[in-house]
Amino acid sequence: MAKNRAFQRRNFIKRHIEDYCEASTLHGVKYVVSKDRPVFERTWWMVAILCSFLWSLYLIQQVWTKWNNSPVIVSFAEKSTSVWQIPFPAVTICSENKARQSVYNFTHYHLMNVSELTDDELEKRQIISLICDQHINNIGEQTINESKIDYYPMFIP
């Protein structure tokens, strides 16, 4: 009685798998269970489907590893953004000569004590320090505003 019940269960599962394979839209699956195909062809399709499945698992694993190492999210905005709403990146102009020594001798004023400088010299020193090397750029403000832009053409060669 138990053997008969196990046989019926196996037969039931086999029949459902065959029905699924015959109705499946996955290419080649229906050829695996087709009774009118030779055994070699059915085996060939089984091997081809198995290799395809294993290859897809390998590719999924590669993508998963890449995602874990450097996750990147690519999304497309649902609403349009005009060009004017995108902030313009900062522009930095660095000349090799940094500043004209004939107009302003930065080294001379840099070596002087701050208390010895006039207000105009101190302001020029702060402005020119913005375009000097990083180890010197520790004087005053670290950014520039519109009032200071007028000084730049006379400094830069």
Brief synopsis:
The chain has 157 residues and is mainly α. The protein is 53% helix and 0% strand.
Architecture blueprint of SSEs:
Elements: H1 2-23, H2 29-33, H3 39-69, H4 106-111, H5 119-129, H6 146-149, H7 152-155
Structural features:
7 helices, mainly alpha, rod-shaped, 157 residues
* Series of secondary-structure elements, N-terminal to C-terminal: HHHHHHH
How many strand segments?
Answer: 0
Q: What structural category do the secondary elements indicate?
A: mainly alpha
Distance between the termini: 102 Å
General form:
rod-shaped
Indicate the percent of residues in helices: 40-55%
The quaternary organization reads as single chain
What portion of the residues fall into strands of 2 or more residues?
under 5%
